[in-house]
Design a protein that fits this description.
heterodimer, A: 675 residues, mainly alpha, 0% strand, elongated, B: two-stranded parallel sheet, two-stranded antiparallel sheet, 11 helices, 65% helix, CTLH/CRA (chain B), CTLH domain-containing protein (chain B)
Chain lengths: 675, 224
Amino acid sequence: MPSSAVTNRPEEVTARLGVGGGAAQGEALLKALREVKNQIIGNKTKKLLYLQLGAVPKIVSVLAASVASSLGGAGLEDAPVIVQAAAAIGSFACGVEDGVRAVLDAGAVPHLISILSHHDDKVVDAGARSLKMIFQSKMAPKYDVLQDKNLNFILSLLDSDNENVTELAACIIAHSCETNEEQKALCDAGVLQRLVSLLGGSSNQKDACLECIKAVVKDNSEVSSRFSCIGNGKALKALSDLIQDRYPYTRLLSCKCLIAIGHASPSYVEELQIKTKLVLVLAELLEEPGRVGDEAPFSLKKLIADNEELHKQALSINVIEKLCNFLHMSSIQSRRLQGILLALSELCSKLEKCRCQLLSPQVYSLNLEVRVLDLVIDSLEHDCAEVRAAACICIRNITRSLKNLSAGSLSNEAVVIRLVQLLYDPSSSIQLVALGALCNIIVICASRKSVLIRCGGVSQLVRLSTSMDSTLRLKSLSVLRNFLFLANTTDKECILKELSLHTLVSLLNDAEHSIQEQALALVNNLIDGCSSVEHIFTEKCYSLILDAVTRQLKQASSLGVCIQGMFVLSNIAAWSDFDKDSVTDYLIAYDDNHKPSLAIKFLQSNDKSLRLASLWCLLNLTNPSSAGSSRRVTKLQTAGIIFQLKSMLNDPCSDCKLRLRMVLEQCTEFETSQA
Amino acid sequence: MSKKVITREEWERKLKDVKIRKEDMNKLVMNFLVTEGYVDAAEKFRIESGTEPDVDLATITDRMAVKQALQSGNVEDAIEKVNDLNPTILDTNPQLYFHLQQQRLIELIRSGKVEEALEFAQEELAPRGEENQSFLEELEKTVALLAFEDVKNCPYGELLDTSQRLKTASELNAAILTSQSHDKDPKLPSLLKMLIWAQNQLDEKAAYPKINNLTTAAVDDPAV
């Protein structure tokens, strides 16, 4: 660095800053300010250094003094000082949190606002740029737009000829409007009209206005509808035109605006035509470099969310292929990867066609050995948590494809192993999605069960089923239930051993009835296919479980619980005479309050599944091939069950009617033989 | 499939039928002069043709001062000038800022100020590398220059070419134009690219009088 009489080391420069005392004045002060500014712009290290040296409060004090003297008409010398001070302050607030804090704490904002009305354009520019830097930070204070004074000030800024000022206004509004009330106040004040007219300006101004419009209409159906009415639809047209703008970032922002309006007030952007155009534009933007391409998939996902028609549109213009091509890139930025996986997940969420395309061999990379599915599975281990979560959701949605699950396209050990790894993820939302995926896989792929056991999946599932988080308990229980579906004895024994009687009973007695229901379904899967209790439970286990089941049936906390509980009893009712007798006693028992027995109550239910489950149970209980059936029929008769059944002959459900007749036939046989 | 043959006569007849407005041609020229920063030429052209430039010529002057400073190797001056023009540009373009710092180092090495260069690399460039891993490779290349006696002929010697200065100058120019909401690329080169593309497309279907020399725009007879 060239030598000069005065050195430019930060400590010495800082010493020259300030008002009065040992600080420099006039030309020397101006030089010092300029020096700081030029050293810190673009240079985070220097910013931090000057922050530590306490430069910010000094610079703000210089700004304050110059502004005061400028207002006092002291003249033109102040302008350069103000410009340099403002620029330095703005730079401190750029990209460095401590800098923003220092600038705010030193009270820079009011002074910067005051110079926005300075007669010198350069001063106004400097003030506007610095304020924009500040308001782009999350830490900046929210500008209270509910106060008339403030709102009027913002409006005056929007009316300015100076683009830096109008952009600043748009930035402040976007930063400060969060609540519906604030959005409405801005709308009432005519901000939206003004922003739309500014869309005719330069591209930087366009972008600032688009971001602002989106912030004002977002999630607010009233404001969105009012926007759509501006100029009899001219405002909407202006936005639609901008989706064809020459600059990709502007196209993206206008798409986002239209999507936000479409979600908040569907009727205005309902036409499939405009939405299809948006899909096309966003599909193209996927291929842009930088932040545009990174954000495009997120917007695409939002646009097509839950809309099968749009999923079909996207499919028809090869969006899936486009998205998959990115997965093949070796160094893809995390944010973009997350977006792509989320967009793919959305596309695979409903349509089988989409899932098949993703899994189809045509979607290959140059390296033919690598399947798209494997690339998604690899992402399950990505460093970035958001990418892992997105990959997990993608896998879960892909596994909704029954066709591919059965065909074994998803029979990949790696999937199960990685998903089990995610069961240990610190984020419970990732754990939940992993559980969802396992739930789907484990039903059809019997072969995956051994992998699950081998890699410690069952142990972790059992551990999660005792989690404090009820959703985790529920989901892990669902996986275990599916695991036990059509399981062989070895697998059943494995689960029982890990799960333990204690846990199973406590799950049956869980506070949440959705969990009770899953636990009952799990028991059902355990006893399904067994012909006696010894096959699966010890005497002690059995009685404890049965107690819990019948207790829940009595409590009848939910329909689902009752149905599953009745299935359990139906299964047991297919066992020995002794078992049948126990079941019968439970069904016909009633307490002193003369409440109807379980059987009557369930047979009288409005829900056909519950009636059906009860009928199945009775069918098993009155099976003629069983020795004690006749005495059970008598018991049922005495308890008024037969009478109840006869009153149901016109049951609206045909399945119920059929079983009902079968039960009555069986019962009548005994009556006749007795007679 | 045999290609259709278009004779020179036919071609010239077709060309005559195409109407292009003089104003549009002028706009293209002005756009080029303005984007590339030829202020004097733009001013003269404005007077002669009556075409209005789409930006204030004063802003071009500022931008050109920046470009010239950089092209003469005066990086610090260029930085100060661009910060006067718009202090947010370098703050929001980390890659550009890195390249400017890199250029400063290159200039120090070129003028043989090894001590200063080392100090500068340590104080100013090393932190950039720390802040952003993607700069490390280029940083290493530049610092490596210090290891060689005959810098001009060492493996990374091309960094000392004026082409490197021009590259950085171009990057800086583009950033300034973007901050002014102006297109960073002039339209004329894109049109030329389109011409070449269109000719390639037509090549597959016909033999026609083709422009092979873009500088003279001479039309060659169709190859038969």
